[in-house]
Amino acid sequence: MTNELETQTEQKEPAAKKARRRVKNVSEPQTDQPVGKVRLRLLPIWLRIIIVILLFLVAVIVGLVVGYSVLGDGAASDVLKLETWQHLLDIINGKE
Questions:
Q1: SS3 assignment for 8-27
Q2: Phi/psi at 18 (5° precision)
């Protein structure tokens, strides 16, 4: 009786493996139509990069103005002057 069970399981295993192989080998039919959809960009990539850089610069300038005028009690227009930054660098380098 055990020999019969062993032979039955041996016979079933190859059939299952063959079925799995058949499933793997099945492919979709070939068509002449394109598979993916072509996406048309409204803004080119180079324009997106320029916009991101400009937004970054605006955010930095707004942050400088808020930090210098609100937190530092200075005039908002002084943050954009070269003399202010030269004075700051002189303090950092120990010239003043």
A1: HHHHHHHHHHHHHHHHHHCC
A2: -65, -40
The rounded distance, in Å, linking the Cα atoms of 49 and 72 is: 33
Q: What is the pTM of this model?
A: 0.53
Hey, which of 5-14, 33-42, 48-57, 65-74 has the most confident mean pLDDT? 48-57
Mean pLDDT, rounded, for 61-81: 89
Residue found by looking up tokens 């808020």 in the block = 66
Instruction: State the Cα–Cα distance between residues 24 and 27, nearest whole angstrom.
Output: 8
Tokens of 96: 């003043």
For residues 94 and 96, what is the distance between their CA atoms, to the nearest angstrom? Answer: 5
Task: Name which of 67, 91, 89 is nearest 79 in CA terms.
Answer: 67
Residue 59: HSE in the Cβ half-sphere, 13 Å Cα cutoff: 6
- Residue 79 and residue 65 in contact, taking contact as beta carbons nearer than 8 Å: yes
- List of residues 6+ apart from 75 with CB closer than 8 A: 69
